[in-house]
Fold these 2 entries.
Entry 1:
Amino acid sequence: MALFCSSIIKRVVVPKLTRKLVGCHLHTCASRHAAAPPDDGSHLWLSSFGGGAVDLTKDDVSGLAVLTLNNPERLNAVTGNMMLQLADIVNDLKEWKGGKALIVHGKGHTFCTGADLNMVRNMLDSKHGREMCAFMHKTLTELHRLPLISVTAIDGPAIGGGAELCTATDFRVMTEQAHIRFVQALLGIVPGWGGGTRLTRLVGRTRALDLLSSGRAISPEEAVEMGLANWMIPTGHDVVEATTDWVQKYTKGKPEVVRAVKNVVVAGAEMSLEESLAEEAEQFVNVWGGPAHQEAMLRNARHKK
Ligand SMILES: CC[C@@H](C(=O)O)C(=O)SCCNC(=O)CCNC(=O)[C@H](O)C(C)(C)COP(=O)(O)OP(=O)(O)OC[C@H]1O[C@@H](n2cnc3c(N)ncnc32)[C@H](O)[C@@H]1OP(=O)(O)O
C-alpha cells in the first residue's frame, strides 16, 4: 500500500451558514480532542485505494442532481478514491446556485455496502482510522447541510457505512427489496461516518440503541413506521424516476426559496436558539421582496384545500 502526504490545501468558498456551522463543528472537535479536521491534506492517502466511481448529473432546468455510487462489482462499496470524489461532488453542489434537490442512489439493485473491505483490511491502525473517520464526517456533515432537498433512494442493501450514508440526506425512500442494516457492532466497531449521531436524532435513543447493538436488518415497512424512511417505492417503478416524482412536491418554488427553507431547517436543527433565530431572520430578508415573493403578491395567491 503506497501511502503519501501532500501539502496541497483545497480552498473552498464557504457560504455564510456553512461557515457558522463549520466553525461550530470544529470547536466541538477541538474541545473534545476528536478527529483532526481533514483540510490539512492528511486524507490524500485515500487515493491509493482505487476502484469504483461516484457520478453526478445536474439538470439546470429542473434544479435536480443525481449522485450515483458506481462500484457494482463490490455492491457499491466505497473505496478511498470514491470518498475523495464524493467530497469533491459535495463541494461542487455547495456552489450550485440553481440547485433545488439531490437524489443519492447506487448503481444496480444495491444501495451501498459501506467501506470497501479490501481497503479496511489494509488500514487497521488508529492513524488511518482517525483520518478516514474525520474525512467522512466532514463530507457527510456537509452533504447533510447542503441547501438542497436531499433524498436517498435505497434499492437492495444499505449496510454499514451505506446505512450511515443514507442518514446524511433529508429523506429516505425504499423499494420492497431494500433494507438498512447497521452492522458495525458485528464487525467490532461503531459507526464512524457520523451515522450513529444522525440515527439517534432521527429515531430516538432507544430505537438507535436497538439497531446499533443488534445489527439487525430494518425492512422498508419498519423503517417507514419508525420515521427512518419516508416512502416505499411501489414495485415495478424505476427507482430514480419514482424518487424524482416524489421529491417534486418540495421543489415547486424558485431555487432561492427552496434553498432558504432548507437553510432555516439546518439552522433550527444544529444551531443554538439565538443563532438559529438570527439565521432565520437573515434567510427571510434574503427572499423578502424577491422575484418569487413579488410574483405571489401579484397573483394574489390563495391557499384553499
Ligand atoms: C468505517 C466503515 C464501516 C462503517 O462505518 O460501517 C464499514 O462500512 S465496514 C463495511 C461494512 N459492510 C459489510 O460488512 C458488508 C459485507 N458484505 C456482505 O455482508 C455481503 O456482501 C452482502 C451485502 C450481505 C451481500 O451478500 P451477497 O448478495 O451474497 O453478495 P456477495 O457477498 O457475494 O458480494 C458480491 C461481491 O461484492 C463484494 N462486496 C460486498 N460488500 C463489500 C464491501 N463492503 N467491500 C468490498 N467488497 C464487497 C463481495 O466481496 C463480492 O465480491 P467477490 O467476492 O469478488 O465476488
Entry 2:
Amino acid sequence: MRIPAFALRAWLLWLAGLLFCVLGWAQPVAVSLSGLAEPASLDTYALVLEDRDKRLTPDEALTQAHLPWRAADGVVNFSFSDSVYWLRLRLHNDGPTSVTRLLEAGSALQDMVDYHLVRQGRIVQTVETGDRRPFDRRPLPYRYPVFPIALAAGETVEVLLRLDTHDGLFEALPLRLRTPAGFLHHSQIENVAFGAYYGAVVALLLYNLLLSVLTRDRVFVLYVLYLASYTVWNLCFTGFGLQHLWPENPHLGHTLISTTVPLIALTLTLFSMHYLQTATRVPRVHRMLRWLAVLAVLHLPLAWLDWYAALFLTVMPLLALLLPLLLAAAFVIARQGYRPALFYLVAWAPLAVGAGLTLAKIVGWIEASPLVEYSLNIGSALEFTLLALAMADALNRLKAEKLQAEQQALQVQRALAADLEAKVRERTQALESANAQLQQVAITDALTGVYNRRSFDATLRREYNRCLRQGLPLALCVMDIDHFKPYNDALGHQQGDQALVAVAQALAARVQRSTEYLFRLGGEEFAVLMVDEGRERALRQIEALRDAVEAMALEHPASPRGCVTLSCGLVWVAQPTVEQTPDVLYAEADKALYRAKQAGRNRTEMAP
Ligand SMILES: Nc1nc2c(ncn2[C@@H]2O[C@H](COP(=O)(O)OP(=O)(O)OP(=O)(O)O)[C@@H](O)[C@H]2O)c(=O)[nH]1
C-alpha cells in the first residue's frame, strides 16, 4: 500500500513536533548575558528535577529525555526532603567578546553542591563543594559557593547543579550572576558591613563580660552567654566561620550550628526570665518558659548526634513559640509599669522580625531576597545596640537600687540604734528607780515610814564624821513611848501599831530641816539627830516634839496621865571628839533616857 505523501509529511511533522516538545521540556531557556541586571537573579530561568532515589549520574541527568524537569518558580527551596535535586541553567554570551561571569549559589549552609559545566553537551568541569566539604575545594574563596564561568563570544554553556543534604534539610539557594567587577564591589561592601557588625558584637560581648565580672549580676552573665551563642551561630550561618575559622573542618561548623541554636533558645529564655523578673511578675508564663528552657536543653544531644534535620524540625517550632511568648511577657510586664520591659520590647522587636523572616524563608513560606537574607543581621545589630542601652539602664537601676538599699539599711540601723538607746535609757531609769526604791525600802521603817535602825547607824556615823571634820555641834536624842506594854495589853497590838504610826507622824511633821533626821530604832523607841544646832535650840526642839506627842492626847488607859507620852534622853556636843564615838554618844543618850524614865517619864533629860 502506498502511503500518500501528504500523510507522510504530516506524520513526520507530528514526530518532529513531539521530539521538539520532549527536548524542549528538557532544555532550559538560554539566558542572554547582554542586558542582564547587576546582579541578575537566575532563579526563574532554572529547570528543577527531583531525584528521589539519588541514583542519577550527571550524564544521565543531562541526556535522559524522559526525566520530569520542571521550571523553578522562584528561589529554589526544598526545605525538609530526602531527595537529591538537580538544577539546569543555560547561559548565552550574545556579545562580540569573550566574558567571565560569576554564578553564586547563595547559601553558606547548603550541605553538598556539585557544579558541572557543560559545553556542547559534554561536562567539561566539575566542582564538589558545599559546607560539608573542606573550604579549599571552592573555586573562589568566598563564604558561599561562587563559580566563575568563561564564555567565548556567541557561546552557550549549560550549568548542572546537584544538591544533596546530610540528613534531609535543604537551604534556600538563590542563584545569582554577577560580573567580576560587580562581584568585587559586592564582596567589598559585604566585608566592610560584616566587619563592622562583628566588631560591634565583639565590643558588646567584651563590654558585657566586663560588666558581668564587675557587677556579679546574673543577668549580665546570661546576656553574655546569649550573645556568644548568637555570634557563633551567626558565624556558621553566614559562612564566615568555615571561611576564616575552621576551613579544614566543616564538621565542626555543623556541630557548632546545631549546638548554638538550642543554646540561643536556652540562654535567651534564661536571660529574659531574669531581666524581666518573670517569676514574680508573670508566674504562669515563667513556668512555661522554664519548660521551654528544659526542651532547649533536650535538643543538645541531637546536635551532638549530628541529627541535623531532626533538630531543626523540632527547634524551629520551639523558637516560633518562644519568641512570641517572650514578647507577650515583656508587653504585659511593661504594662505593669516595669521600665526594663519596655527597653526589652523595643530591643527585641527588630530581631524578632528578622528571626521570623529567616524562619519563614527556611520553611519556604516566603521567597529569599536581600532584605530577608540580611534581616537577621540587621535585626540583631539593632537589637544589640538597643539592648546595650537597656543594659546601661539596668546598670543605673542597679546603682540606684544599691544606693537606696544602703540608705534604707542605714536608716534601719539608725532606727535600731535609737530604739536600742531608748530601751537602754528606759531600762536604766527603771533600774535606777528600782534601786532607789530598794534603797528607800532598805532605810525605811515599814510600819511608820520614817528612817529605820540601819539608816540610823549609817547616818549617825556619817554625820558624826562630818561634825568631827568640820567641828560642828551634834545632838542625839533617844525617845521612848511611856508604858507601851500596858498600852498594848489594854488596847491590843493592832491599836499599838496605830499609836506608833501616830507618834511617828507627829514627830515627822516637826523634823523638817535638812540638818534633822528622825528614826524608829525598833519597838516603841525613836531617835532624832540634829547637826549644827546649838544646845538650847536642840533642847527646845526635843521638848517641842515631846509636847506635840502629848498634845495629840492619844488615849492611854494604863498611863497615869491618861494619854500617850514620850520620855527623851538628849546628848549634845559642841564638837565631837575622837573618843566620843557614835556608840558612846548613843550610850549617853540612852542613859539620859533611863534617867527620864526614872524621874517619872514624859520628860527630857540631858546627858551631862
Ligand atoms: N504594838 C506594838 N508593840 C510593840 C512593837 N514593838 C515592841 N512593842 C511592845 O512594846 C513594849 C515595850 O515594853 P517595855 O520595854 O517593857 O516598856 P514600857 O512598857 O513602855 O515601859 P517603859 O518604857 O518603862 O515606860 C513591849 O510590850 C513590846 O511588845 C510594835 O511594833 N508594835
